[in-house]
Amino acid sequence: MRALLLASMIALGVSPAVALDRTEVTAVRLTISQQMDALKKEDATAAFAIVSPKLKARFTDSNSFMTMVREQFPVIINPQLVSFDDIQQTSYGLTQLLRLVDARGEPWLAFFVMERDKKGRWGVANVVTVRLPSYEA
Hints:
- By secondary structure, the chain is α+β, with helices and mostly antiparallel strands.
- The chain has five helices and four strands.
- It has a single domain, classed as Roll (Nuclear Transport Factor 2, Chain: A).
- The two termini are 16 Å apart.
């Protein structure tokens, strides 16, 4: 599992942990939590409101965004378990690592790439998910 995590981090171009103050870390994690809560409630409008301006520009509306999330990222809609890990600076930007467990009990990593808007608010710019190998007892 560590090898897969390391490979994922190398692929994202991870550099050492970013020195953010506690307020910033809390703001990033709150933004991600709000989006995941909106996705779980199937609230496309609220989930879409939390994405970065660049990501919004790629979709015609909140419903097309929600359809993409359902098809490509089902694990972030209703995970059984969510655990926030480190925030790293990657070649894609500030990235929050989450450890997730899906409805079938399978482990995942989710990398939430974050971006500020013109008003300084955090938004989700991209998500990369990686299914980890499961270990059976």
